[in-house]
TrEMBL record:
Annotated InterPro entries: FAD/NAD-bd_sf (IPR036188)
Pfam families referenced in this protein's UniProt entry, alphabetically: NAD_binding_8
Name of the protein: NAD(P)/FAD-dependent oxidoreductase
UniProt-listed PANTHER family: DEHYDROGENASE-RELATED (PTHR10668:SF105), PHYTOENE DEHYDROGENASE (PTHR10668)
Length: 474
């Protein structure tokens, strides 16, 4: 039997391990932390019984992942739950851009911009399952559905600010801009629309789902399947150098490129080592979890029913804050993402005390405390919020890096998602999962298609490993 080691038990590491085990390879996953899951861990915080996601929380890309969808993870306890409203983007006048799973329902709420929203998302969302075959993998290859990809890809090449100008109302512009800002990238830069378009299209097909019982359930279900397939997971095992690696026919790394360069050292080809060490990291996240009595009193009524709320004001304001954090300056009013997962999954609450998950976009490695800035932004759109806070728990950029070594400087996307790194991964090659060292492969979110709990980076890297073992024609 062929053998494999997978370093890291985030969704990509587990996806790689599962795909290898499905092909009959003996797999061992090594995890440095005491608990599996990487960015999909969850736990009680602040108040007993109050469940918070540690990082990844809402999963429009995971619920429709071509790889995860075929695993039957419901057999291992994974249940997806959807809020009444996927996302709301409140504005200072009390109105909001409102995102529903249905393209038509979203369009109906956007007034004069409804027809343009339908034109932009109707066709891609209806054909998302085919589109995903091309966008959830390396882009430097001949697409399976070239016309469909071209229709999606043309606006994806444009700056988010340019695409947003297709809309006449501030509600539609801010709604689109807030989703595009998930890329932690200046909105006036080319290709800054791509991640937002991908999230919106996937969400219109499958919804902005949460995992019942917390994001940890995703990793736990994947680990249960892996065990059933004969694989094993060892926690508390940190790999610092090649000498720490057990012998195996293939080794896959759910790590940053710089970490792989440190582990493999001069075993890597010089050109690959240089590229990995030059890998760029983007801005960071500063996270505050709140225990809130009675929930958040949003002025915009739709926000009270939304699983995700983007707190950042107008499109122009969001664009300004994203530019500032890229320049290393902390804005007074940062862009804040707020998660109200309990609306779809009430079991996360403790009576009338609800968990509210938030993080602000901050400069890379930010050493200040953004707690008050986050509270002020929430108070801006939900007067009285401050008085409902029962308790808080914070995670700084340094805390994120300690929680998950892939989050360098608090960069929870595992690398800056500019044009080059989003399309190519850590180096210029048509095979972004290959390290240049035979039998060793990179499977983290540093590779295409990038961040999310979809597991596609791991599944694609595993196919490369199987080809190396001559067990696949992929």
């Amino acid at each position: 039997m062929n053998s494999a080691i997978v370093v890291g038990s985030g969704p990509n590491g587990l996806a790689a391990a599962i795909r290898l085990a499905q092909a009959g390879v003996g797999v061992t996953v090594l995890e440095a932390a005491g608990r599996i899951g990487g960015g999909t861990r969850s736990g009680e915080a602040i108040v007993p019984g109050l469940l918070h996601d540690h990082c990844s929380a809402v999963h429009p890309m995971a619920v429709g992942s071509p790889f995860l969808a075929g695993l039957g993870l419901d057999r291992y306890g994974l249940r997806w739950r959807l809020p009444e409203i996927d996302c709301a983007h409140p504005l200072d006048d009390g109105s909001a851009g409102v995102l529903h799973r249905s393209v038509a329902e979203t369009a109906a709420g956007l007034g004069v911009d409804g027809r343009r929203w339908e034109r932009l998302f109707g066709h891609p969302a209806a054909g998302y399952d085919l589109l995903a075959e091309d966008i959830l993998g390396p882009l430097l290859r001949f697409p399976r559905h070239p016309l469909r990809l071209a229709r999606f890809g043309l606006p994806a090449l444009a700056p988010a600010t340019l695409v947003a100008r297709l809309f006449a109302t501030e509600q539609a512009r801010a709604l689109f801009g807030g989703v595009a800002a998930h890329a932690f990238h200046p909105l006036e830069k080319p290709f800054s629309s791509s991640i937002g378009l991908g999230i919106l299209t996937a969400g219109h097909r499958y919804g902005w789902a949460v995992a019942e019982g917390g994001s940890q359930r995703i990793a736990d279900a994947m680990a249960a399947l892996l065990t059933e397939l004969g694989g094993t997971v060892e926690t508390g095992v940190r790999v610092r150098s090649a000498s720490d690696l057990p012998a195996a026919d293939v080794t896959l790394y759910d790590l940053t490129p710089t970490a792989v360069a440190d582990i493999l050292g001069d075993r890597l080809p010089a050109r690959v080592a240089r590229a990995y060490r030059r890998f760029r990291y983007g801005p960071g996240a500063f996270k505050v979890d709140f225990a809130v009595e009675g929930g958040v009193p949003w002025t915009a009524e739709a926000a009270r029913r939304a699983g995700t709320v983007h707190v950042g004001g107008s499109l122009a304001e969001i664009a300004f804050t994203e530019r500032e954090i890229h320049r290393g300056r902390m804005p007074e009013r940062p862009f804040v993402l707020a998660g109200q997962q309990y609306l779809a999954d009430p079991g996360r609450s403790a009576g009338e005390v609800h968990p509210v998950w938030t993080y602000a976009h901050v400069p890379h490695g930010y050493t200040g405390d953004a707690t008050e800035a986050i509270i002020a932004q929430l108070e801006r759109f939900a007067p009285g919020f401050r008085d409902r806070i029962v308790g808080t728990s914070t995670r700084t950029t340094q805390g994120f890096a300690g929680y998950n070594a892939n989050y360098v400087g608090g960069n929870i996307l595992t690398g800056a998602k500019d044009v080059r790194q989003l399309v190519l991964g850590p180096r210029a090659t048509t095979q972004p999962y290959d390290t240049g060292l035979p039998g060793h492969f990179l499977c983290s979110a540093a590779t295409p298609p990038g961040p999310g709990a979809h597991g596609m980076c791991g599944a694609k890297a595993a196919e490369r490993a199987l080809r190396h073992l001559r067990l696949s024609e992929a």
